[in-house]
């Protein structure tokens, strides 16, 4: 058998085995995706609040420091949400009139060149939507009830994530040490190297993406407020959460802002918001990510795009959020293990005894 065929076959069956193991792992995670999502969110909360808890633990007992960090973060989140709700309630009186006028402007704009839409098309569309809602009322009610059940699942995941993060922050080091001690002695060092590299990359990515999301939301909020677009604060908050999905999250959120601007302020302001999409995308891609994400593993944009799309196909929005940090962690673990292996080989080479024998003048010299 040719050696090339033997080498190809050896790589092929190993790739098949690795693919089967990965598929089995994702199948297990798929059956327990709520638990996996809770653990992931718990790790995110741990990466965010662990520095604050460690800082507070210098001046107070650690249990009290963890409690203060958690209560402070909960108060901050509830304060932001209440501020957003107050802003929506305060603008609700004028929003209906602005959107009605905006829809009329959009209709007149579509009826003119270059679209020249039939004037009765939008009216007929509204009537068809009304008939659809009245005909499928029972289906919509059942969908709403299933949505309530889904909301209960989401709240359960969040509660479990907070429960896990409390113990991760309080005694995560002891839990990791206990887990490492259960492994065979020959594997402990490699697992320790891989775990430290994974956590360093995960925390760096989490902190970096929060800084990027906060910067994007502030820029969007200021721009929408300056343009007079309603709901500037809720749209800025939407931009913050959408930035956690790399490459596609921010354009989608800004697309929603463009629709709101089109309905409330007309096409000129909507075009300005669309230009804002391009500008913020350039700032994020060429300034924020290279600077802020420098302490985390930097992946090629093609790898990020493929990871986001594959994660979205496999697990929806959650998969799109999880895949990029997962790929970053895997790559950093691979690099850390490779560096450790090369370091071990270099030490072994330096400590290897010399086998050459040097004799006196005039005699033969031998050596390897």
Sheet with the most strands, sense and barrel status: none
**Whole-number radius of gyration?**
28 Å
Residue share in helix: over 70%
User: What is the end-to-end distance?
Assistant: 35 Å
Bulk shape: globular
Mean pLDDT: 78
SSE order, as H and E?
A: HHHHHHHHHH
The chain-level structural class is mainly alpha
Structure description:
The chain is mostly helical and 368 residues long. It has two domains: 33-172, no CATH class; 183-343. 85% of the residues lie in helices and 0% in strands. The protein contains ten helices and no strands. Helix 2 (33-56) packs across helix 3 (62-111), helix 7 (232-242) runs antiparallel to helix 8 (249-265) and helix 8 runs antiparallel to helix 9 (267-292). The protein is globular, with a radius of gyration of 28 Å.
Features:
368 residues, globular
Helices and strands in order, then pairings?
Layout: H1 3-31, H2 33-56, H3 62-111, H4 119-135, H5 137-181, H6 185-227, H7 232-242, H8 249-265, H9 267-292, H10 301-351
């Amino acid at each position: 058998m040719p050696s090339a065929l033997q080498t190809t076959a050896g790589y092929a069956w190993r790739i098949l085995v690795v693919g089967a193991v990965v598929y089995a792992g994702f199948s297990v995670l798929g059956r327990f995706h709520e638990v996996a999502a809770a653990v992931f969110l718990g790790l995110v909360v741990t990466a965010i609040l662990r520095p604050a808890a460690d800082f507070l633990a210098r001046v107070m007992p650690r249990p009290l420091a963890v409690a203060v960090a958690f209560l402070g973060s909960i108060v901050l989140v509830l304060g932001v949400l209440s501020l957003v709700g107050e802003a929506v309630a305060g603008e609700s009186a004028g929003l209906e009139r602005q959107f009605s006028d905006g829809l009329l402007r959009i209709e007149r704009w579509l009826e003119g060149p270059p679209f020249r839409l039939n004037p009765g098309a939008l009216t007929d569309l509204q009537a068809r939507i009304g008939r659809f809602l009245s005909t499928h009322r029972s289906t919509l009610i059942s969908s709403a009830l299933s949505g309530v059940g889904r909301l209960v699942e989401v709240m359960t995941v969040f509660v479990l994530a907070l429960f896990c993060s409390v113990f991760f922050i309080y005694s995560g080091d002891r839990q990791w040490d206990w887990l490492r001690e259960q492994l065979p002695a020959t594997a402990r060092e490699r697992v320790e190297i891989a775990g430290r590299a994974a956590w360093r990359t995960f925390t760096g990515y989490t902190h970096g993406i929060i800084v990027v999301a906060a910067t994007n939301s502030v820029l969007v909020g200021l721009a929408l407020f300056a343009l007079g677009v309603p709901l500037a604060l809720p749209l800025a908050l939407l931009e913050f959460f959408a930035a956690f999905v790399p490459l596609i999250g921010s354009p989608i959120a800004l697309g929603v802002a463009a629709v709101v601007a089109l309905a409330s302020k007309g096409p000129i302001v909507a075009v300005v918001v669309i230009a804002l999409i391009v500008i913020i995308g350039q700032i994020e891609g060429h300034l924020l990510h290279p600077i802020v994400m420098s302490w985390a593993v930097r992946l090629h944009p093609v790898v990020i795009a493929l990871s986001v799309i594959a994660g979205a196909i496999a697990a929806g929005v959650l998969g799109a959020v999880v895949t990029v940090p997962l790929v970053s962690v895997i790559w950093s673990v691979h690099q850390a293990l490779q560096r450790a292996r090369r370091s071990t080989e270099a030490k072994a080479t330096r400590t290897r005894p010399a086998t050459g024998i040097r004799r006196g003048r005039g005699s033969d010299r031998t050596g390897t």
